[in-house]
Amino acid sequence: MRRLFPAMVAACVLWAQPGASAPRSAAQAEGEIERMLEDARSFYDNLELESAEDALDRAVRLAERFNVANATVAQVYVQRGILSYVRDKDSDAAVSDFVEALRIDSRAALDPLVSTPSLERLFDDARAEARRSPRRRDPAPRDDGRDDRRPVREDPPPPREPDVRHTPPADAEAGRPLTVSIEVSDALNRDVYRVYLFYRSARNDQVQKMELAPAGRSNFSGRIPGRFVAGRRLTYYVVLEDRTGAGIGAVGSSRDPVTVAVKGDVLGDLDAMPSGSGLGGEDDDGGGGDRKYVSVAVSLGTGGGFITDLARPQNQRGANIRPGFALAPFHTLLELDFWLAERISLGAFARVQIIEFTHAEGGRFKYVAVTGTHQLILRAGGGVGRVRHLVDLEQVLDTTLEGPYFYTLGAAYTFQFNPTLGLQIVPDFIHLIGDSPSLHMDLNIGLRASF
Q1: Are strands 374-385 and 358-370 parallel, antiparallel or unpaired?
Q2: Which ranges of 133-252 does DSSP label H, i.e. alpha helix?
Q3: pLDDT tens figures, 103-112
Q4: How many structural domains comprise the chain?
Q5: Of 166, 237, 272, 387, which has the maximum CB count within 10 A?
Q6: Of 363, 343, 353, which Cα lies nearest the Cα of 303?
Q7: Pair 260, 178: CB distance under 8 Å
Q8: Does the CA dihedral 94-97-100-106 come out positive or negative?
Q9: What CATH code is carried by the domain that includes residue 114?
């Protein structure tokens, strides 16, 4: 009995050794290879990558030992190539395994559930290499007993469609929105998370950025606002990103953008293409959106002007006034504009002085000379009303009223926080004409809302 127990233990140990259950024929080896492939795929899905690698390596050794070369073995090499690229970023190892898979079975393919555009490109490289250097090992005998050693003639694969398709417009009409659309292949569309359009016109040095919206199963589209379609040409490019923010496709680039000729801009001959590193040098997302039709601005300001000997004090009417520069008390400026085109508006304004109340109203013409996040708007107008200046009568302070007619010239700098709201800084020159003339300057700071 003492000798029987150790013998039973030894028998169990020998039975458990891998070599004890090793396949003894090619048919058994094929079954084991298929099982190992399924195990490797299960390990890969559960992120047990070391176990997946071990199962694939054992399957490869078994296939080489029994000279098994079938579709299952080809998939073993495909799976090992995927693992090499995903885990180790080893493109050379991945291509080598893909080439071996295609030499064994020309119909081998990537699993659609784990395929990515990068793996697709590597697999295409492997397919080309496999055609240049076919498999040197003898193929396995056919099932019907014949040994087919003649090379099999394969039809060339159909040309691969581009991942991103885009047809640039022949030209664009100045002042009118321009639609940009792209179509993405099914293989790439699975990884697309966001699509961005970067654009600018020849007379605007600010790069604009907008997100293209889905327009169907595999299309994305967006409209460049008409105010950016100006000058002689418009440049743009498109970048596709995955969920990590990495670029996975593009149309054009910052240094080689798509260029569209712009027609109908009366000031097109004044263009000068901006110099620098190209379209992609900035990350500006202001100024997008559709055309605006109405804008309202509210500003606070102060100013000063030169009064003449015709000016009269309003409280101390008999006092003498020294002509010269005099400050204008605090005022507000209210503006309402109707945009007849992307760059041109007609509107009304009211200048109201709070201290020692007085007011002036009129109409104004505006032209947007520079568009984008940083805008420059030229303005000219005229109207009726008075401007009150503060004068020192030695012992007391008094005010005068200049006017009652005037014309005004100015320029507004606007910084757009978003397509609707912007901060504006406005210096205005006002020439007051009438019974008390004056040359006057105002500085106004406020907010403008566009709709």
Answers
A1: antiparallel
A2: 186-189
A3: 888 888 887 7
A4: 3
A5: 387
A6: 353
A7: yes
A8: negative
A9: 1.25.40.10
